[in-house]
Amino acid sequence: MKLTLLAVGTRLPSWAESACAEYARRFPPDLPLAIVEVKAEPRTGGKPVVELKRREAERLRAQIPTGARLVALDEHGSDLDTKQLADRLQSWRRDGRDVALLIGGPDGLDPALLQAADETVRLSSLTLPHALARVVLIEALYRAWSLTAGHPYHRE
User: Fold this and answer.
1) 126 is in an annotated binding site
2) Is 104 annotated as a binding residue?
3) pLDDT in tens, 116-146
4) Can you name the residues that pair with 29 across neighbouring β-strands?
5) Paired residues of 37 in beta bridges
6) How far is CA 7 from CA 10, 104, 126, 150, 154, in A?
7) Which of 14, 21, 97, 151 has the most crowded CB, counting CB atoms within 10 A?
8) Is 124 annotated as a binding residue?
């Protein structure tokens, strides 16, 4: 199984790029993590938010691996602790499909894309900056994997 993080936005600060790359590097060969960025629609020109999100969704859809399970990150998604995320990761692995995790732009994900998702997950009740959300998600996935692998990185 392969994990693909699809995120709207292409300009992360260097600290976030470094953190994402470091955690992505730690994933085992049988669970690789790819990070794919798509361009955010410019928030100038007075376009309605619904149109901005629709255009970003088109870009995301074009990058989703064929047959992948879609997991959308959304503030109204399931709130998982580390153990629950580890269980979910195990379930995804048993399913055998690749998993595409979707992070929207400044206004979130298009409603049609959210509806098409196999599931939605929330990272936090806090509002997180986009760059930090990526780091938190990748670290949480790595920690979930480490728990399933019996790695000492996770301590309960």
Assistant:
1) yes
2) yes
3) 999 999 999 998 899 999 999 999 999 999 9
4) none
5) 7
6) 8, 6, 19, 29, 26
7) 97
8) yes
- Three-class DSSP category at 130: helix
- Amino acid letter, 25: R
Whole-structure pTM over 0.85, yes or no?
yes
**Residue 123 annotated as binding site:** yes
Say whether 101 counts as a known binding-site residue.
no
Q: Are 150 and 156 in contact (CB under 8 A)?
A: no
For residue 113, what are its two tokens? 């894309």
- Backbone φ and ψ of 149, nearest 5°: -90, 0
Report the b/e string of 23-54 with b at 16+ CB within 10 A. bbeebeeebebebebbebbeeeeeeeeeebbb
Question: Annotation-wise, does 73 bind a ligand?
Answer: yes
Residues 59-74: pLDDT tens digits?
999 999 999 999 999 9
